[in-house]
Design a protein that fits this description.
single chain, 179 residues, mainly beta, Immunoglobulin-like, 2 domains, 5-stranded antiparallel β-sheet, 4-stranded antiparallel β-sheet, 0% helix, globular
Length: 179
């Protein structure tokens, strides 16, 4: 099992513990936290209600591991005038040292260099080649915050974390065109 974790929303009062759909169609978010950990400004619990506003959001829809890197799929096409440079991304990989207490330090933290990238013809998928990938690592993605969709929306969240347990075999090929 492997995959990406994205921010669902931002600004919750404490760490999300339970989600439940209410009879009114709203999403209820139960929260618990601890001081210094999963809390916001020292708040250790909360119950919040989220209601869909009817608007779409421009964000990362999926991140898929590839034999030599990753494919990032967006909910909308990138704006035609988007200029993407590898230097605009921060991509890191590491593993966590297990400890007797909760959590552990990041080990072998490495900032990765994109050696090649391309954008799909429909401008919804971005391929990043990262030759120094190592299995059993967390891969952190920080995309340029100024990315815009074709409809003019800004990227909702520019961060994602991917647990890469295994690098896929090289028998999968995707077609890409250069941006």
């Amino acid at each position: 099992m492997q995959g990406a974790v994205f921010r669902f929303s931002q600004g919750f009062e404490a760490g999300v513990n339970r989600l439940a759909w209410g009879p009114d169609g709203a999403l209820y978010v139960g929260e618990v936290g601890m001081v210094g950990g999963w809390s916001w400004q020292g708040k250790q619990f909360g119950l919040e209600r989220m209601v869909y506003n009817g608007k779409t959001t421009f964000e990362m829809l999926a991140i898929r591991a590839q034999p030599q890197g990753f494919e990032i799929e967006f909910t909308e096409p990138l704006a035609a005038e988007t200029k993407i440079r590898p230097a605009d991304f921060i991509i890191q990989q590491w593993w966590y040292q297990p400890t007797a207490s909760y959590g552990g330090p990041k080990m072998d933290l490495e900032t990765m260099n994109i050696t090649q990238f391309s954008l799909s013809e429909d401008r919804t998928r971005l391929y990043l080649e990262l030759p120094s990938l190592v299995e059993e690592r967390v891969v952190y993605f920080r995309l340029p915050e100024d990315l815009q969709s074709a409809s003019g929306q800004s990227l909702w969240s520019s961060e994602a974390w991917y647990t890469l347990n295994q690098i896929p075999a090289a028998n999968t090929t995707l077609s890409h065109v250069s941006p």
